[in-house]
Amino acid sequence: MDDGIERAVVDELIGALGPDGVRVGDAACRLYRRDASTYVGVVPMAVCLPSSTDQVAAIVVIANRHGVAVVTRGAGTGLAGGAVPLSRSIVVSTTRMNHIVSVEVADRVAWVEPGVLNLDLTRYLAPFGFCFAPDPSSQQACTIGGNVANNSGGPHCLSEGVTSAHVVAVEVVLPDGDIVMLGGVEADVAGYDLRGLFVGSEGTMGIATRVAVRLTPLPPSVRTLLAIFDHLDRAASAVSAVIAVGIVPAALEMIDGPLAAVLEDYAHAGFPRDAAAVLMVEIEGTAASTAEQADRVTDVLTEAGSVSVRVAEDAAERAGWWKARKAAFGA
Fold it and tell me: What average pLDDT does the segment 266-284 reach?
């Protein structure tokens, strides 16, 4: 691209966002060539750090005027290369748009900006008795905007569903710079489900600038089981066996032996170092129902070939197991 055009683009971006909202030069932009995937892209001509919907729209209008591509980036935790710029483009990082705008308990909806961290949202909602159900392994770092773009899942989406089931509305800056609202908090929104179309579109249809997420009540009781297997195929069969008896756990995760050993070396959570596979099973409900289902699941796992089944003794042990599981990529 012509240097004069790049200079004009950068000048207009600085005019719209201020000098603190635009990063230029190889040293400032080099880290934005890649995300958590193995792909390495091109150093962008500029990295924009907007703090409002209007600023995002201004960036898109400037890019259109000069024929420059735009790549949207959340926390960069994606493994598919979705935030990797493939040309001399503008990267729009939404990390400064990190406010929880409102929590409407009566409607079970919270409005958040795209840069809010997934785990921060759930921690914020806990005193209200709610959580945001989708919990990707990168939960401590990934953003709600990235969850929306990739329709992210997570261990607890077995029973609750992925992100699309927990987003009721999205404010979006379209590729021409227009600002629209897709979906709504009403019980029955008229027209096509454009919200559903947008969630999971990986930035190809626009940039989310506000998101209305559905609040999920925290369960009154939780039991987490750790089943150890000496054959990988038995662990896999045990997954089907649990579902076959009519129990759908909140989470049902299989970890192979080598990874379990790595996680134990990393997190010291009590995982076996010599197993072929480990199953983590989490059951939610009332105290009576979780106790009954935990006993039933233990019987099923034992019949399927588990050499031992442990139940987390307390919340601290349960949290340690999940912390280890979600540290798999880093470990």
Answer: 95
